[in-house]
Write a structure and sequence with these properties.
The complex is a heterodimer.
Chain A (H helix, E strand, L loop, with lengths): L5 E14 L3 E14 L3 E5 L6 H9 L6 E9 L2 H5 L15 E2 L5 H8 L4 E4 L3 H4 L6 H12 L7 H11 L16 H13 L5 E5 L7 H16 L3 E6 L2 H7 L2 E6 L2 E7 H5 L7 H8 L75
Parallel strand pairs in A: 3-8, 3-9, 6-7, 7-8
Antiparallel strand pairs in A: 1-2, 1-4, 4-5, 9-10
Chain B lengths: L14 H4 L6 E11 L2 E11 L4 E5 L6 H8 L7 E6 L2 E2 L9 H4 L2 E4 L13 H11 L6 H12 L3 H4 L8 H13 L5 E5 L7 H18 L2 E6 L2 H7 L2 E4 L5
Parallel strand pairs in B: 3-8, 3-9, 6-7, 7-8
Antiparallel strand pairs in B: 1-2, 1-4, 4-5
The chains are: A alpha/beta, B alpha/beta.
Chain lengths: 354, 240
């Protein structure tokens, strides 16, 4: 990957849920990516494609019926493995920890909040409704940092400032905050312990364009301060604004992993699904991808996108590996015609059968 | 605010009809709110011509959803009048006369909050038919609608918690179309959805409108989307 030394290194991560009747829901399949300090990776895909499950797996927040495979190493990658140099920058070097194998004590005591900050979806619901923002910030400062009691108030104020939360609103309750301020309050909480990795789960859902711009600009600032950001979103416009790299997830797999510049700019995505997703934007063709994604409980053998794809051939009965950033047997080449309406020998219906 | 003259030039409902048909929706000098003395919408006038698609655009908190609720007869305004197909609204919520209530179909932003979790999707889609004593049409009309929004039999047998947001919103759109409304109100219908599902749902709405000549009031904050979708965009916000 492009990262010289990954802060987070996910390798072959799979998550499945065991359901009644010995059925399994395969939510995440064999996902691998690296994420470096000062880098933002946007994980995009439609609702139900497994991206939030992936985030929960990294935070150790999956329910008891989840079965995990693979690894997610946080903390310094190869450098720390060799016992060598600590990371440059403001963050102290810490032992690498495998987020997948770690027990709840490790996750609760040393990882969540301290090494990974979560910026949740619908922040207003994430904050406690019965306490002011200041009370929640001060509690977080006390719990996560060794700040002496008399300095807690100042530290909370500083934490609010880091997320551009106005000091004048600190004594407000969450319901008194606008969507944008609630977002900043939640971000302030995530930043309290100076976590080097931030995970933002749909941080822009339900916000209007202006607030999306604000949120994205502020998140980008934290990336430029040297943090790594994994941003989970279905909003391609927000992803375009912030992401260094884009990972497109489909039916639990990463099908495309490309620099943001290439994804949104010239060459465009090479996987037919990623290409169709971008083409569906109202500023582009505004044409949906025919059909719907498969059930995670009944994934087809081989490429999960094949039933909706216009380029399907025999080889698609084999699951394609992610090679060169694309998991497709017949990736689009730069300047190729659009997928929808492209000539095809496959049985898949053309264009807009909706 | 624009839109005080009915049936602007861009109305696609067919020029021959536009001259004689009253506007699908007229909001005249609406003032509405929830807390006494704090109106969310003040003195707002908006007209949707027959078969016209109008986008109401503005930042969150500007009162556009409230206005959409007024248009759908779900929220009684403090002042002003609402006309559907030229007839003044005579009641709100459950007191709205059936003939008026069924003229408007509504799709909300969050399908989870707008769907009874106990109903299967097929029940959910057919609920307006049942509620209006037309249960015998449920099987046929429900089937048509499900096909139009792209839900198959297997999905129709499920309950909301067993489907994705996109699939549930498809069902909510089908439900809004069940009684063949003359006016469709879409309040941030696609804010939770990915680009492909957004394009798919907009296509369903447009196919319905092309077939039935229905009008549309689309509320949202995504200018690019609304300008691509609608004939005319009304911007709200400035003076509130």
């Amino acid at each position: 990957m492009s990262a010289p030394s990954a802060l987070l290194s996910v390798t072959g991560l799979s998550v499945r849920f065991r359901m009644r009747g010995n059925r399994y829901i395969q939510a995440v399949s064999d996902v691998s990516f690296d994420l470096a300090a000062g880098e933002c990776l946007a994980l995009v895909g439609e609702s139900g494609c497994g991206k939030s499950v992936l985030a929960s797996a990294l935070l150790g927040l999956l329910p008891g019926n989840a079965q995990l495979r693979g690894g997610a190493l946080l903390g310094g990658g190869e450098q720390l493995h060799d016992g060598a140099q600590p990371e440059p920058g403001a963050f102290e070097a810490r032992d690498a920890v495998d987020l997948i194998g770690a027990d709840e004590r490790t996750m609760a005591g040393t990882v969540r909040g301290r090494r990974i900050g979560l910026i949740p979806q619908s922040p207003a619901a994430h904050l406690s409704p019965v306490r002011t923002v200041r009370a929640q910030l001060e509690e977080t400062v006390r719990e996560l940092t060794g700040t002496p009691r008399r300095e807690v108030r100042a530290a909370a104020l500083a934490a609010a400032g880091r997320a551009a939360f106005p000091a004048g609103h600190l004594d407000h309750y969450p319901h008194q905050l606008s969507g944008g301020l609630a977002q900043r309050a939640a971000t302030a909480l995530a930043l309290v312990a100076d976590a080097p990795l931030l995970i933002a789960d749909e941080p822009t859902t339900g916000l209007d364009r202006e607030l999306v711009e604000h949120t994205v600009t502020e998140l980008r600032r934290h990336v430029d301060d040297g943090r790594a950001l994994l941003m989970i979103t279905h909003d391609l416009a927000a992803a375009e604004r912030i992401a260094d790299r884009v990972a497109v997830m489909y039916a639990g797999r990463v099908v495309e992993l490309a620099p943001g510049r290439d994804f949104f700019g010239g060459p465009g995505p090479r996987h037919p699904y990623a290409h169709g997703l971008r083409a569906a934007l109202p500023e582009r063709d505004f044409v949906p991808i025919p059909g719907m994604p498969p059930e995670l409980g009944a994934l087809p053998a081989g490429c999960a996108f094949a039933p909706r794809c216009t380029r399907t051939e025999e080889a698609c009965a084999q699951t394609p590996e992610l090679v060169d950033g694309t998991a497709c047997h017949f990736p689009l080449t730069a300047g190729a015609p659009a997928v929808v309406g492209a000539p095809s020998t496959a049985a898949a219906p053309e264009g807009d059968d909706r | 605010m624009t839109g005080s003259t009915p049936a602007p030039a861009a109305a696609p409902g067919g020029p021959s009809r536009a001259a004689t048909t009253p506007p699908a929706l007229e909001l005249r000098r609406i003032t509405a709110g929830y807390q006494r003395g704090k109106p969310v919408v003040e003195d707002m006038t908006l007209t949707v011509g027959p078969g016209e698609a109008v986008a109401l655009f503005g930042p969150s908190g500007c009162g556009k959803s409230t206005l959409a609720r007024v248009a759908a007869l779900l929220h009684e305004p403090w002042a002003g009048s609402v006309l559907l197909d030229g007839e003044p609204a005579r009641g709100w919520r459950h007191r709205a006369p059936r003939a008026q209530r069924t003229k408007v179909g509504v799709v909300f932003q969050q399908p989870r909050l707008a769907a009874d979790p106990r109903l299967t999707l097929s029940r959910l889609i057919a609920e307006p038919l049942r509620a209006n004593g037309r249960g015998e049409e449920a099987a046929r009309r429900g089937g048509e609608l499900a096909e139009a929004v792209g839900l198959d039999a297997e999905l129709l047998a499920r309950r909301p918690h067993e489907v994705s947001d996109g699939q549930l919103q498809r069902a909510c759109l089908a439900r809004a179309l069940a009684l063949r409304p003359r006016l469709l109100v879409c309040d941030e219908m696609t804010a939770m959805l990915d680009a492909s599902t957004t394009a798919a749902l907009v296509a369903v709405v447009e196919a319905y409108r092309a077939e039935n000549g229905a009008a549309l009031l689309a509320v949202g904050h995504d200018r690019t989307l609304l300008e691509r979708w609608c004939d005319r965009t009304v911007e709200q916000g400035g003076h509130w």
